[in-house]
User: What shape does this take?
Amino acid sequence: MIPEIEKQALSEIKKFQEEKLKDVLVYLKDKSKFYGRMFSENNININEIKTIEDLNKIPVTTKDDLQNFSNDFLCVDKSEIVDFVTTSGTLGDPVTFAMTDKDIERLAYNEYISFSCANTTPDDIFQLMVTLDKRFMAGMAYFLGLRKLGAGIIRMGPGLQKLQFDSIERFSPSGIIGVPSFIPKLIDFAEQNNIDINKSSVKKAVCIGEPIRNPDFSLNTLGKKITEKWDLKLYSTYASTEMGTAFTECEAGKGGHHHPEMIIVEFLDENNNPVGETEPGEVTITTIGVEGMPLLRFKTGDICHHHVEKCSCGRTSMRLGPVIGRKQHMLKFKGTTLFPPAIYDVLNKIDFIENYIVEVSTNNLGTDDILIKAGCSKTDKYSEKIIKDHFRSMMRVAPEIEFYSPAQISKWQLPEGERKPRIFFDKR
Assistant: This one.
């Protein structure tokens, strides 16, 4: 199912969004303490904001704003709130989002059209390898979207490879939803237990939370590591709690499709000016149709390219390229500027590294230091040199390396009480 607006000319999509923007601005002025104060302090007349380009007249909203003035973003009485969720806190303290019944329905519709984009039908059964508890929006969103679509759902949660395969054997799911770095662990478990994964019912995977493609849409190291051993069709999806919206790939695998009825997207440079189509920019969003805590020009911290040519699937809406990195995670290392995903891509190429975390700190000179803590069952005197040679050949610089057991790395990645693994630790 493709919503009609996603098949319209870009000029019609823009006109549609500008009509929706008027409603968003009126709602924020009337209901939001934060935005009402912003409009007043900056002498903003919302009647003068008529186009997407006019948004430049409004200051951006940051994660600091959300953390410092969280309650002022709430636009409804607390009696209307039916669910509380929190962000993961990757870039700071977690932020609480309050959702109304209408927001929950909007979330379900978003995932319904997103899963439809990824060729999901009512005949599919998906094994859900993410948590539905711990105030995690994503697991609930996937469940609601698949339910609205009419597909089957197996609520397994993360980890537990043995139980994952037991469930695959019992219920024959056609697809899985999970963090892509977990899939090689499933492959390893299958090989160790003589399970022929390519004879299983699972033929596709919706990958969340980590990129599986390079900026040119070719599979990155992690994507290749999966597909070289398991004949899966991979669909990447990008989302966040703040936007309550997903950008999901279709069968073409050329970027996550924008849903114009859900969200307005800008791509901004460091001075909050729009970038060109060929330039990477920070994904900056204005939500449409959110009741509880709508956001206006919110800077997500994620750096992406965007693409506007028509897709082979028939959709004409903008497509979002793979996340290059988070703005706050940008590193200056020995004269080289890089983002953590580039480090992950090197580590994923080295077979004897089973898992890892990346720690970044500031040294005595005030510059960035990078320490790789690698989880390896077996190492020898050449292991460190092999890793550093890989870094030098791909990035011209090499970080420090320490070796630990994979079990210890797993504990650091997912401490008790956490809801998703973490591999980047910023101690600057």
The two ends are 46 Å apart (CA to CA). Residues 278 and 292 are 35 Å apart (CA to CA). The mean pLDDT is 91.
